[in-house]
Write a structure and sequence with these properties.
122 residues, mainly alpha, three-stranded mixed beta sheet, 61% helix
Length: 122
């Protein structure tokens, strides 16, 4: 059963990703701090098993209306539930020059959706 509390939790996670300006899948910096967007991504990922339709709706919303980092998070998570749709999303994002910050551990970098999508498709 999908209750109001769970819907609010997924909506809040989607809203956080929609305004994310940084893409990180783990802790960042020397302290390994989890960014709010990373935590939101993890909440959506955790909900996939029990609520795949609701998570898919959040991902579709993010792909249509999310920030550049939010769209990258959405396409990444979409790979887990619909690889063909994820490939189509990455293909569409390959033409987008919008930029965002990335983190890999302590290393901060900049990427465009164009560059990031091309790497995901390779």
């Amino acid at each position: 059963m999908f209750g109001i509390g769970k819907r609010r939790e997924l909506d809040a996670a989607g809203d956080e990703l929609a305004r994310a300006d940084t893409l990180a899948f783990g802790g960042v910096g020397f302290a390994g701090t989890l960014l709010p967007a990373t935590e939101a991504y993890q909440r959506l990922a955790s909900a996939l098993v029990e609520h795949p339709e609701e998570v898919r709706a959040q991902l579709d919303r993010l792909l249509d209306h999310g920030s550049p980092a939010g769209r990258a998070y959405a396409a990444t998570l979409l790979e887990r539930i619909d690889p063909a749709a994820a490939r189509a999303a990455w293909t569409a994002l390959r033409d987008d020059p919008a930029e965002f910050t990335t983190y890999s551990g302590c290393v901060m970098d900049q990427s465009s959706l164009r560059e990031y999508a091309a790497r995901r498709l390779a």
